[in-house]
Write a structure and sequence with these properties.
By secondary structure, the chain is of the alpha+beta class. The chain contains 5 helices and 4 strands. The chain is rod-shaped and about 105 Å long.
């Protein structure tokens, strides 16, 4: 005896029945008001996410900018104080090298001015038997332009100076206003003046 035929067996490849899965047609089953509410909820979540992320990004940008400024301040301070010490420490024994160092640490009109007096200065230092040793007593940046990579600094220097007429070293105190510009990876002095 053959089992009875069911409707499913009557259906062949040409008579397929479409099965509807539970998740199919769900959008049609959800009322329009629920879809609007869901869209508003998604929008609110997006606004909250932006409200959290935007300040974080701004803080990250400001932190990076602050780190850049701090790095420039540190680099400028080291470079300028080193240059000032070397520029205020001439010696008869190294006068020619001293002049070359002065010129290599400067730029612009300041370098041009130094170039005009360099040989006369070296001759005077040699003939007077000058020996000077300088140290920085204090320094501070009065302005920093990160975009133009330009800094103005005030440096207080103590110079121990002796020469043919004064064989015992005498202390001299200077305050210098120094302007420097970062060119490539070097800070070069573009102006230096004595200040009261």
């Amino acid at each position: 005896m053959e089992p009875p035929q069911t409707d499913a067996e009557d259906e062949g490849p040409d008579n397929e029945v479409a099965l509807e899965l539970p998740w199919q047609g769900a959008a049609a089953a959800v009322p329009a008001s629920r879809r609007s509410l869901a869209a508003v909820a998604v929008l609110v979540v997006a606004v909250i996410a932006l409200a959290v992320l935007v300040p974080f990004q701004i803080r990250s940008y400001n932190h990076a900018r602050s780190n850049n400024e701090t790095a420039l301040r540190q680099q400028a301070t080291v470079a300028i104080t080193t240059a000032v010490v070397e520029l205020t420490s001439p010696s008869a024994a190294t006068a020619d090298t001293y002049v070359k160092d002065m010129l290599s640490r400067s730029t612009g009109a300041f370098k041009d001015q130094l170039g005009q007096i360099a040989q006369t200065f070296a001759s005077t230092v040699k003939s007077a038997g000058v020996t000077a040793t300088a140290t920085v007593a204090s320094s501070g940046i009065s302005s920093l332009n990160v975009k133009d990579r330009k800094v103005t600094m005030v440096v207080a220097v103590v110079q121990e100076l002796k020469n043919n007429q004064t064989p015992k070293a005498e202390a001299r105190y200077y305050r210098l206003r120094v302007v420097a510009e970062k060119t490539g990876d070097r800070w070069l002095i573009s102006d230096m003046r004595f200040v009261a």
